[in-house]
Amino acid sequence: MKHCLPFPSLSSSRPLDGSTAPAPPQRLLWCYCFHHCPEDSTNHTCRTDGYCFTMVEEEEGGTTLRTAGCLGLMGSEFQCRDTGNARQRRSLECCTDQDYCNHDLHPTLPPQKPPNYVDGNIHSKALLISVTVCSIILAIIIVICYRKYKRQEPRPLYSMGLEQDETFIPPGESLKDLIEQSQSSGSGSGLPLLVQRTIAKQIQMVKQIGKGRYGEVWMGRWRGERVAVKVFFTTEEASWFRETEIYQTVLMRHENILGFIAADIKGTGSWTQLYLITDYHENGSLYDYLKSTTLDSRAMLRLAYSSVSGLCHLHTEIFGTQGKPAIAHRDLKSKNILVKRNGTCCIADLGLAVKFISDTNEVDISPNTRVGTKRYMPPEVLDESLTRTHFQSYIMADMYSFGLILWEIARRCVSGGIVEEYQLPYHDLVPTDPSYEDMREVVCIKRLRPSFPNRWSSDECLRQMGKLMTECWAHSPASRLTALRVKKTLARMSESQDIKL
Question: Name one GO biological process term (predicted).
């Protein structure tokens, strides 16, 4: 692979002995890279705001693996002190003093601890007792392991290597504990990268729960906790990389954005698997939920309010030394919103997201070749008039798509004992798999939008919802409501009906 998760930052140009990391460079640093090169690297070089590193680690079978590359500044203190563990020898060195400084780093594996020999003059009786006790204990362990093995569910042919490495995760720690500890540490951008890799190795894949154009989704278990594992096709590497990058953005975590746990790449020379591990929500997507569930006003407002709360957090730039950039989703639809057990929503699938870099006034667009979903594309995307260098254009495109999602939700709200069956937007105007031309003719040329059932006019809540979605999917992007305005309007609607969200 040319690139993987940005490895946590390492330390100075000497073996790791617990000393503190050097001061970060005052400029971008060029580094030599090997086995940890980003996709756009040339001649085995990369550039970073953090450190250059070289690492040597012992693999199974006694072979050694040497890697080098660039390390981001975030989280460096944690990795700078990593010196392997009892089961895996590893030595790390890093440097910041000059470009390509890691080319001359030569870390060596620490010496193996010699076995503790005991005096050979052991009394034969003591030896006999010891052998007997050890044999009994071994027999008990074998019986217990055999019974556990018999009780285990059958696993799929491919799984995520289950090497048990407890290096960074003490027994008894739950995912919630680990994430809360990471949040309280001040990084705000997720778990340390080696902790993520450890979790990824220990996941047990249970069953496939979904499949899409990017890959498959599995329900897995980690220490008894259920998690969702998104397995990307190798052709969707750009989506995996972008989604992982967005999830690990500082201050990204929010109750209405899918909870990120870990990401990892597993593979050999002949195959590669890209994993993204997140919270598991048994209700599935909003699309699946609406097909099988009817709503009252409270449930409708709860779904809508929580969805736009997540979108509002995504769109909002948070200023500060550890701020969060504004992010636009670019593929917002009911299949990319998940429903939690408590009836609220969280936004998922950030593989097409774009970030706004306010310092340089630039839009950070992923090199991903994937496009959004044609049915939810706004008119300016369909007629190719969207200004790609203007970040607000992407924000307003999201709001058009969100207006269609509000329409999907509102149709499933019962009023006067009546409710419509679930349908996708424009179901009566375009084919099941519409082309760009189908959507452009309906949305841009005819300027049609999904129709409202007559019953909405006699229900105040649905009437207001209709007005809200109309202002979201306006033809002119400048006329559309912002996520914050929609959030405030839904909160006011809830208060007027004495509904607690």
Answer: cellular response to growth factor stimulus
